[in-house]
Amino acid sequence: MKFAIVVQGNPYASQSCHSALSFAQAVIEGGHEVLRVFFYHDGVLIANRLTAPPQDEQDICADWQSFAAKHDVELIACIASCLRRGVLDETEAERYEKEASTIAPEFVISGLGQLIDATMNADRVVTFGA
Question: How much is the pTM?
Answer without folding.
Answer: 0.95
